[in-house]
Design goal:
The protein is α+β, with helices and mostly antiparallel strands. Helix 9 packs across helix 10 and helix 12 crosses helix 16. The protein is elongated. It starts with a helix and ends with a helix. The N terminus is likely disordered.
């Protein structure tokens, strides 16, 4: 056809364009189907439904597949229907779709529920597969791409597929029209028996409504007829309440579903369908909303990478996360993972819930919020593990699942390994993780380990941690990760990065005892002993069984745990088999460590250096967060674990060093310990109250199990019928709240055994807990901990509240009722009511109704009607979470006809083979005909009995120490135990040799060891020896004194004799009897053959100046005039007169020089101190004799007093004139001289001098 023909025929042009468009559309649809649809048809082995209208076929699942979960119900079969439906429980032949929700067990998966009629055209193909590896992998990859957040740590692997394809199917009565319209769509069901998914693929869709559903016979559309019911797409639980409907269902716009999508692939919709609610894949274009985050739990050191989904992202999105004050740019790969962004976590300073905020506009607004739980380092297996063999260090790391923000394969990843130090500085309030050494550089992640010679540190560190990071992400010169006063540092190098950490370890040298002793002494000198007075630190349990049973107050210590894996369960402890630590810190942020030996008794540090002790820092952290001493786990390790290792094990348990630690961290005995009290609900259902009363109550509904208004504690339970047509009920849900804590709900399910839900009271929202990385979760600071217990096949849940009360819930294998055991804290005694009774140690009033009436267990019917059902709770008092599918109005059924009689066909042999002599097992087995219910009840009762025995109170008298100078035998301080005391040899014991603990009081008297007393004979011998030695010492001292005195007397006599030889003054030169002294000139010192008396020029060689009134050589003083007020020298007794001697300077000798030379002062001035007053007019005073004062001339020469000699000379002068040479005038006054007298005096003095010189020689 030519173009001219087309121009001349407009109708032909239109027709031509329509044909071209149709062909293009067909080609597009064919291409889309090829990309979206899984292979189908007879050529790939599909089976076909019969060519019939409104028909279907039931399919049984292969034996290798346990279940197909749908709406939280497990199914072993399903139906494929012609009318665009896959159903469960029954075939759906209804051709006109109804609006969801629907009841009557119409459990439906509807890819396109409409009135299909294959008799008018088309085929319905189906096939199951468990061995087509290509298709299974294709399904697995699609789930991984779309649900990356949900299955990041537990990757889903498809094990079974059902592929159902409605191939070009027509609608009912379509052949009456001129155009035959067709639809092609496909449903793919995927499961691994635990999780299940559905993919809806849509090809060409041309109709929505069959004519029997009031659709247009020509177009197959609803048209203008209000009665028309277009196709329904979605899911229905069959309970009349729970459903999911795809937008535009039952409208003509549903025809456009092949151009829309929820996973960014037009024509494909995808859902997760195993849970109680349908989870649509993809994202939501809301302006704000909640985030889905994986993992839900992260390690406190940071480095985990969060996968976050919820809002829709595109290539222009500038995504940031804000966590703990850090703003972190997210990683986003639109092509490979269009629904998920990733952010690395920072260092956390507190455990518990932490919000995560997300921004799509570069951090300007954070409109999306999610939550993660921060867990301690000991709550998740470490991803980096160091080991050491001699001097070879080996560092291993996880190869799979490295927390990268991109999608590199592990072969492309290279990593560095660093050693970090952890320090706390109380002066600056800083905590820091600092890189100190690069251990390995640019290693392949796929290697999984690196070995090297143990490195030596330039400076010692106390706490080390290994970190694996992407190559080049950390530089050794960087300051590390710092938090000051709880505020993170701003250095760019502190930005969170993907990383893996080891557990912390003591980085001090392990084989240097001397260094450890020095370390311990230094630590002890700086550490203040703990003052435990007034602190509410919990007391240790007395026995190992109490410690293991009291799960509400204590937990296993990770460094000494019987239940730990590996050979070395208690490093450094050989006499201790297990330790526990307190779950709650004291008001001052302290912890408690309690250890036990193989006798199951507590080991105190005072008796054994391997024992437990008080802890300066609580392992769970303390407020304010981020301060030194308050960091979870690390502060305790640095401040308590390392000092114990350094002071005790690494010193070889040196007593002096261990005592340092013991004095700083004293042990707590168990004298004040009070155990919890157990109660239980299990089976069909059996109740055991706190005081031990046992009864059966077949209630149906929600009841108060325990109420303790004084502690603001409430625990509620929901009981429901277990088996249809059997009048038996069991506990299916338990929920509890204490004070202002979050509400914790545990419920039994067919698929996951137990689900744990938490109502975050601050947000008023329920959250189902996942345990991807750790079997531990905490709601701190709102006071609840949840942890998984038991092996996987019999896994249970333990819930602990800060108040100390806990409960454990288990799902016995094959049973449909939970077993719950509650351990009430001691504070609840005397204050509980409810189905579990009044805890007051009096079983007679346990079964007390709310109105105060008390009943017995004799009549179960009366007990049911007048006690049990009276504890129904109202909706306003309910703590429960309700599924959409739950009809709240029908939960409580007070008119339920409970049956307590047994009508069973079981034989005694059958009962014995299953239950033996267990009464609870036999009852439940007969009542339900389920052996699993019987054995589950038996196990639960045995568990309760064991806990009840283990928590029986014991009485302790408290610690007794050994007496000084003695020892004790025995370290058990419980009632009935006896301690023996002995003293070391020679010491005398007073008090009791043994003391027994009776009713909390030690019998007997305090034992004292007294040092030995000496005998009388020994005492006398000691006295005699001491006297002899004392006498000898005294004689020796006296002899020495005599010698010293004799030598001193001879020296003084010689000095004074020299003075006398120089007394040559005239009578006028002696002024008022004041004898003046002057030193000898250095060049005039007399020799043995010379005398100053024979040297008439001697005095002229002395230094002269005009300084007057001096008698001692002190440069700053004058002297004291010794004349009286009348100008005459006063007379005094000879014993009071004394000559002055110099205090310092050269040897001084006497002289009668009249002129007063410089630097002299009198004897009185020498004692009294310096004088600057010049000539004094004061009279001479008596100076008492001092030990260092010179003796008087009278004392020196008693046989010839110098004063008397001067008096004689005066008298001679008066009679005959002067006989002395005047040194100032250099002439003799010969008037009235007496040569005989002078000569006599000279001879006498010379003789004395010569005799002294002879003696000296």
């Amino acid at each position: 056809m030519s173009m001219g023909t087309l121009r001349s025929s407009p109708s032909i042009v239109v027709l031509y364009l329509m044909v071209c468009f149709t062909l293009a559309r067909v080609q597009d649809v064919a291409s889309q189907e090829q990309d979206l649809f899984f292979p189908y048809g007879s050529s790939v082995g599909d089976k076909e439904l019969p060519i019939e209208d409104d028909t279907g076929i039931e399919l049984e699942l292969p034996a290798t597949i346990s279940y197909f979960p749908f709406f939280d119900q497990n199914h072993r079969s399903l139906y494929v229907n012609t009318n665009g439906v896959v159903s469960f429980l029954q075939n759906v032949v209804q051709y006109t779709p109804e609006s969801f929700p629907l009841g009557n067990d119409r459990r439906i998966i509807a890819p396109y529920w409409a009135d299909v009629d294959v008799t008018n055209g088309g085929h319905v193909w189906y096939r199951q597969t468990t061995n087509d590896t290509d298709l299974l992998k294709r399904a697995t990859d699609e789930v991984a791409r779309v649900f990356a957040v949900d299955f990041r740590f537990e990757p889903f692997v498809a094990e079974w597929l059902l592929i159902v394809t409605w191939d070009k199917v027509a609608f009912y009565n379509s052949r009456t029209g001129r155009v035959n319209r067709e639809n092609t769509f496909q449903a793919i069901l995927i499961t691994d028996s635990v999780y299940s998914f559905t993919i809806f693929n849509y090809g060409e869709l041309q109709w929505t409504t069959g004519s029997a559903s009031f659709g247009d016979k020509e177009t197959g559309l609803g048209g203008d007829d209000d009665r028309a019911v277009p196709a329904q797409v979605g899911f229905n639980a069959g309970d009349g309440l729970n459903f999911y409907s795809v937008p535009n269902s039952q409208t003509d716009d549903i025809l456009k579903i092949n151009t829309t999508t929820n996973i960014r692939k037009p024509g494909r919709w995808m859902f997760r369908i195993d849970g109680k609610e349908i989870e649509a894949a993809g994202c939501q274009n809301d302006l704000d909303g909640n985030l889905r985050i994986s993992p839900a739990q992260v390690i406190m050191l940071g480095g985990d990478v969060l996968s976050i989904s919820g809002p829709c992202f595109d290539v222009s999105s500038d995504v940031f996360c804000r966590i703990q004050g850090y703003e972190i740019q997210a990683s986003y790969d639109f092509t490979k993972d269009p629904f998920t962004v990733r952010c690395a976590t920072p260092l956390f300073m507190a455990l518990g819930e932490s919000p995560v905020y997300l921004s799509k506009d570069g951090g300007q607004t954070y409109n999306y919020t999610g939550y993660i739980t921060v867990v301690g380092m000991d709550r998740a297996p470490p991803r980096v593990v160091p080991s050491q063999d001699n001097d070879v260090l080996r560092v291993s790391w996880e190869k799979d699942g490295y927390p990268f923000t991109n999608s590199l394969s592990e072969d492309d990843v290279h990593v560095d390994v660093f050693l970090y130090s952890y320090t706390e500085d109380p002066n600056t309030n800083e905590v820091r993780l600092k890189p100190v050494l690069k251990i390995a550089d640019n290693r392949k992640l796929s290697n999984g380990f690196d070995s090297l010679i143990r490195p030596q540190l330039a400076e010692p560190i106390d706490v080390g941690i290994y970190r694996v990071v992407e190559h080049g992400a950390v530089d050794i010169s960087q300051p590390g990760i710092s938090v000051v006063m709880g505020v993170p540092g701003t250095d760019p190098s502190q930005a969170p990065i993907p990383s893996m950490w080891s557990m912390p370890f003591n980085a001090n040298p392990a084989d240097d005892q001397a260094d450890s002793n020095q370390w311990c002494r230094s630590w002890g000198s700086a550490e203040t002993p703990l003052d435990l007075s007034g602190d509410n630190l919990p007391a240790c349990p007395c026995t190992l069984r109490q410690a293991q049973a009291d799960v509400g107050a204590f937990e296993p210590y990770p460094w000494c745990n019987q239940g730990a894996s590996g050979d070395e369960k208690c490093p450094y402890r050989t006499s201790v088999v297990h330790c526990v630590r307190a779950r709650r810190g004291s008001d001052q942020g302290r912890g408690q460590l309690c250890c036990y030996d193989n006798t199951e008794n507590i080991v105190l540090l005072e008796d054994n250096y391997e024992g437990g002790s008080s802890q300066s820092h609580f392992n769970g952290g303390h407020a304010p967060a981020g301060y030194p001493g308050n960091v979870p786990y690390l502060s305790n390790f640095l401040g308590d674990r390392v000092p114990w290792e350094q002071c005790c094990p690494r010193t070889g348990y040196n007593p002096s060093s261990c005592d340092i630690y013991r004095n700083k961290r004293p042990s707590s005995d168990c004298k004040n310990y009070l155990p919890p009290k157990p109660a239980a609900v299990f089976g069909e259902p059996h109740f055991i109250t706190f005081d031990g009363t046992k009864y059966i109550f077949n209630g149906y509904g929600e009841f108060t199990l325990v109420s303790a208004p004084g502690a603001n504690l409430t625990m509620q339970g929901r009981m429901a019928q277990l088996i249809e047509n059997v009048q038996a009920t069991g506990l299916t849900v338990a929920t509890m709240r204490v004070g202002d804590s979050d509400t914790i709900q545990v419920e039994i399910t067919d698929r996951r055994k137990l689900d744990v839900w938490v109502r975050r009271e601050a947000r008023g929202a329920w959250q189902r807990l996942g345990f991807e990385q750790s079997g531990w979760w905490t709601a701190r600071p709102r006071g609840a901990i949840v942890e998984l217990i038991g092996a996987e096949e019999s896994q249970g849940v333990r819930v602990i509240f800060d108040q100390g009360t806990a409960f454990e819930a288990k799902a016995p294998a094959g049973a449909s009722a939970m077993a719950v055991k509650i351990l009430a804290a001691p504070a609840l005694q005397g204050g509980t009511t409810g189905l579990l009774g009044n805890w007051n140690s009096d079983p007679s009033d346990d079964l007390k109704a709310p109105n105060g009436a008390i009943f017995s267990v004799d009549s179960l019917a009366n007990l049911h009607d007048f006690f049990g059902v009276k504890w129904y709770i109202s909706r306003s008092d309910s703590l429960f979470r309700y599924d959409i599918s739950v009809n709240v109005s029908t939960i409580n059924r007070p008119n339920f006809q409970a049956v307590y009689t047994l009508d069973s066909t079981l034989t005694e042999e059958q009962l014995n083979s299953v239950c033996g002599d267990s009464e609870v097992c036999r009852y439940d087995y007969q009542k339900t005909s389920s052996p699993e219910m019987g054995t589950g009840a038996e196990d639960a009762e045995e568990d309760y009995e064991g806990t009840s025995n283990d928590t029986t109170p014991v009485v302790s008298c408290g610690f007794l120490e050994a007496p000084q100078g003695g020892s004790k035998s025995g370290t058990v301080y419980l009632s009935g135990s006896t301690l023996e005391f002995s003293c070391i040899e020679g010491y005398e014991r007073t008090g009791s040799a043994s003391r027994q603990c009776v009713q909390g009081v030690w019998q007997g008297n305090v034992t004292v060891c007294t040092p030995p007393q000496a005998s009388m004979r020994d005492l006398m011998l000691i006295i005699i020896i001491a006297a002899v030695l004392g006498g000898i010492l005294l004689l020796a001292l006296c002899f020495l004194c005599v010698i010293c005195c004799f030598r001193r007397k001879k020296r003084n006599d010689k000095d004074h004799a020299d003075h006398e030889l120089r007394t040559i003054s005239t009578i006028e030169g002696i002024e008022n009897g004041a004898l003046v002294t002057t030193p000898l000139a250095n060049d005039r010192t007399p020799s043995s053959n010379s005398s100053i008396i024979d040297d008439p020029n001697y005095e002229h060689t002395l230094p002269r100046n005009n300084h007057h009134d001096t008698a001692f050589p002190f440069a700053d003083t004058g002297y004291m005039d010794m004349r009286g007020s009348n100008g005459e020298a006063p007379r005094r007794p000879a014993r009071d007169r004394q000559l002055a001697r110099p205090v310092d300077g050269p040897d001084y000798r006497g002289s009668a020089i009249a002129s007063r030379g410089p630097g002299y002062r009198s004897a009185e001035e020498a004692v009294a101190g310096p004088s600057h007053a010049g000539p004094s007019t004061a009279t001479a005073r008596h100076v008492p004799s001092l030990s260092k004062q010179p003796k008087t001339r009278a004392e020196e020469n008693a046989y010839d007093d110098p004063l008397e000699a001067r008096q004689k000379m005066e008298k001679a002068k008066n009679m005959k004139g002067s006989i002395f040479k005047d040194p100032n005038t250099s002439h003799y006054d010969s008037d009235d001289s007496s040569d005989d007298e002078i000569a006599r005096i000279k001879r006498k003095i010379r003789q004395e001098v010569e005799q002294e010189e002879e003696d000296d020689r």
